[in-house]
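protien #1 (seq + structre)
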Amino acid sequence: MGTFKVKFRVWNPANPERVEELEGYVDTGAAFSWVSRTRLDRLGVKSSRRMPCRTIEGRVLERDMATVYVSTDGYSVPDVVVMAEEGEMEVIGAHSIEGLGLAADPVQKKLVPTIMLALMAK
């Protein structure tokens, strides 16, 4: 079905006037979105924690995580993103996509609104 990119924006919740616009691959296999550390530094975003991340080759990397707002196509959501190091791709991952109430449509090559699943207990 192929891959595709989308344009999205991130901003610092403490300073919403500072916005970074970027284009990244839609990666539903990535739990979190990856945004350049340099880009996040320009926004004044600080790391909130450090987490291990497993690469597709099986290596384990430690990466800083930061809280930002993510927006695309008129939808926005607070989210936690990986602070990507130089040379690492910027992607919008499953956590952001689902938080935005969107789903990847690989045929149309775009993110589309979806209905979330609800688990109801009696």
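ok now protien #2
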Amino acid sequence: MNKQNTKLENYLEIKQKHDRMQSIVDVWAVDYNIEKLKPLLDDGFDGNDIIEYFTIRLIDYIENKYEPTKTIKDGGK
């Protein structure tokens, strides 16, 4: 029973995280970018290859280019 509770808790945690991500980033934008990866699938790469490629690119972006969005203290005025 405990194992099932853990699986349910994991599912709910992941769902909550994904729902929050979806509320922050437009689903259309994500789907559009996924569609742009179609040539990789057509060329014979599988999903794990693409995930690996994307992970490497994302890590590079985070480590070398990412700058947090700055909020304006006066409310943008």
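The helical segments are 2-24, 27-35, 38-42, 47-64.
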